[in-house]
Every structure is written in C-alpha cells, then in structure tokens.
Amino acid sequence: MNSIKEKTSVSKHYALFGIEFILILCVITISGLLSHQRNAIWKDDASLWGDCTKKSPSKARPHNNLAVAYNEDDMPDLAIQEALIALRLRKNYANPFISIGNAYYSKGSFDMAIMSYKNALVIRPDYPDAYFGMGNAYGKKGEMEQAISAFQEVIKLRPYGITARVNLAAAYGSKGLTDLAISELRKALSLKPDNPDVHYNLGIAFEQKGLLLNAREEFRIALSLNPDDREALRKYNELSKKLKM
C-alpha cells in the first residue's frame, strides 16, 4: 500500500480641545508607528519568536517555539540549536525533544529522531506527538510493526484525529493487511467524511483487494472534493478503462 498518502486584544475617552487632544493625537500616532514596526518584525513565526527570545532570553518556551518555526521553515539545524537552549533553560520539558526529533526526521536521521521522541515520552508518557513522530520514523526505516504500535498509541490518546489513522492504514497496507487498512480508513471517514485524501487512500486499498468499482467510486469522490488531485484523476481514468474492457 505504498501509494497511500501519509498524513500543527481600549476604549479611549477623547478630549475635544486643548492640550489633551494634542496628546491623544500623539498617542495615536506613536501607536500606529509601533504597530507598523511590530508588523515588520513579526512577518512570520520565526521572526516573531526570534524577537521574543531576544526580549526574554532566559525563558524556555520562546526558544522552543522558535525551534518549531525553524522546523516549519525547513531549517532543522537552527531548530535543534534553539530546542537545546530550551532544554538547558528548563529541565523535564518534553516539547523541545519533539522539536529535535522533527528536525532529525527532516534530515533523514531517523534513529536520532526516534531517540528524541523516546526522551519526550520519558518526561510525558502520554504525549501523542511523540508517538506520532516515532511512527513516521519507524515507517521510514521500514520497521512497520513498531510503526503500527506507535500509531495505535496515538489513536488511543487522540481518538478523534484522522492523520494517525491514515498512517496506520498505510503501515497495515505495506504489510499486506489490506482489510485492517480499509477498516482504519473507514473509521477516519466516519470522523471526517469530506477528506479527499482519505477517500483516495481507500480507493488504493479497494484496488489492492480487487474491488475496482469501489475503488473507482472512492477516486471519484476524492476528485469531487479536490478537483486538482491529478493522481486521483489518473487512477479514476485508469480504472474506468479497465472496467470497460
């Protein structure tokens, strides 16, 4: 099932004359300038949290949030650097280990990523993000039993999320456990029936089972929800030709 797609506030009393009115105009002007400066500084999350770390260098949370932003901007080395600062500033802080794990994952260092996620779980054993990261890393390593176990833990802790279910279905599919994959995808659809990726993945699973009519219908639904999905269009057309033969 390698084709399955894997899945983050003044009211003012204005004086109408004299010196008070002039002062209020000054306040409004200064406030506008400050707002403009803030907008310039906070053009993205990395800029925002970078500014926060400069103003509060001894607080761990801004450093970790900056690490998160660096990961989102595909700068894993800077993310690791900021997460390590956060860990030095606050002991038993699980979040930076997630940031470090995510950075190593993006670098392709899956063993290092898994180690970081496990460190997060030592501090916070019920942390679904740690299990989710582990599942993805194990999946990249081809260790599907461990990936399945990790995604199952995510679902126990976060039963209403669908991404872990989709990834669990992918892990099942890679082991040829197509019926289990279909079961997970149907559960995901019961939570979010208008998700085109889940319909696409269910189509892949049905196709593997030889249920071509069911598969084509899932690709059709995926296309109706996301007309720009070229892969769903390709699969739909491919199955339509097969069914006409």
Keywords:
245 residues, mainly alpha, 76% helix, elongated
Strand-helix topology:
Blueprint: H1 18-41, H2 45-55, H3 60-72, H4 76-89, H5 95-107, H6 110-123, H7 128-141, H8 144-157, H9 163-174, H10 178-191, H11 196-208, H12 212-225, H13 230-244
Helix pairs in contact: 2-3, 3-4, 3-5, 4-5, 5-6, 5-7, 6-7, 7-8, 7-9, 8-9, 9-10, 10-11, 11-12, 12-13
Proportion in β-strands: under 5%
Low-pLDDT regions:
6-42
The main β sheet shows up as: none
N-to-C CA distance? 25 Å
Please state the structural category.
mainly alpha
Outline type: elongated
Helical residues, percent: over 70%
Radius of gyration: 25 Å
Order of helices and strands: HHHHHHHHHHHHH
Mean pLDDT: 83
Number of strands: 0
Count of individual helical segments: 13
What's the quick description here?
With 245 residues, this protein is mainly alpha-helical. It has helices at residues 18-41, 45-55, 60-72, 76-89, 95-107, 110-123, 128-141, 144-157, 163-174, 178-191, 196-208, 212-225, 230-244.
